[in-house]
Design brief:
CATH superfamily of the largest domain: Chorismate lyase-like
Radius of gyration: 23 Å
Shape: elongated
Keywords: DNA-binding, Transcription, Transcription regulation
Mean pLDDT: 87
GO molecular function, one term: DNA binding
Strand content: 25-35%
Low-confidence stretches: 1-5
Organism: Pseudonocardia asaccharolytica DSM 44247 = NBRC 16224
Protein name: Putative HTH-type transcriptional regulator YmfC
CATH topology of the largest domain: Chorismate lyase
Pfam families: GntR (PF00392), UTRA (PF07702)
Structural class: alpha+beta
Length: about 240
């Protein structure tokens, strides 16, 4: 049998640079040699180098900023399984980082009609609205917008008492155990999601639009969590069974 695939010069460059990136010759965030330098090193044309760099970009190993250069993609700060529902805080800890939460809003208010429809609750439901930045070792990895039914909270609830992980508050303060999540996943580009000192750097996100329930299918929360692209890496196990 004759093989129809042939290794090209661009393939050789990809293999060499991939090995050097993964071997640490180029640190995350560092710039690769220029096109001219790579042409001289490998003895090929600019078109061949551009093809190789494009392939590295597709593999997620580099990002090219036009007029500036090509840079090695920083490794994600946090890794998690997309099929697993759990606390973002615990995922950050499991990645060897220190989690943090910065709250911009903790407000009791009635639901909007579209929110009530999404949550499957009466339109006059009162909720606690939360807006927070989630950090890992001080770096923002996600922006979360959460709605929690007021009926779940203590009678004399003070919004200011919620300062850290929402899941930890459910478990430790309310004795509630989230066990089921119904999620939609979207890629989002927007300048209106991020806030705070790093807002200008964050415009690409993976949105996890998720409803949280307990074992009795009681609605616990509606969360729209925007994970900063490149800072949070999800893994998904897929089988044919």
């Amino acid at each position: 049998m004759v093989s129809t695939s042939r290794r090209t010069l661009a393939d050789d460059i990809v293999r060499a640079l991939k090995a050097e990136i993964r071997g640490g010759s180029y640190a995350p965030g560092s710039r690769l040699p220029t096109e001219a330098e790579l042409c001289r090193r490998f003895g090929v044309s600019r078109a061949t180098v551009r093809g190789a760099v494009k392939e590295l970009d597709v593999l997620g190993l580099v990002r090219t900023q036009h007029g500036v250069g090509t840079f090695v993609t920083p490794r994600p700060a946090v890794r998690d399984g997309l099929e697993r529902m759990g606390s973002i805080t615990e995922s950050i800890r499991a990645s060897g980082k220190i989690p943090g939460h910065e709250y911009a809003r903790r407000t009791l208010r009635p639901l909007l009609p579209d929110e009530a429809e999404r949550m499957g609750v009466p339109p006059d439901t009162e909720v606690l609205e939360l807006r927070r930045r989630i950090t890992a070792d001080g770096d923002v990895v996600a922006y979360s917008y959460d709605l929690i039914p007021r009926s779940l909270l203590p009678e004399r609830f003070d919004p200011e008492e919620l300062t850290g992980s929402v899941f930890a508050y459910f478990e430790n303060r309310l004795g509630i155990h989230p066990t089921l999540g119904m999620a939609k996943v979207h890629a989002v580009e927007s300048v209106h999601i991020a806030w705070g000192p790093d807002a200008g750097k964050h415009r690409l996100f993976i949105l996890l639009d998720q409803l949280h329930y307990d074992r009795t299918h009681r609605m616990l929360a509606y969360s729209r969590t925007y994970f900063v692209e490149g800072a949070y890496e999800f893994h998904l196990v897929r089988t044919s069974d």
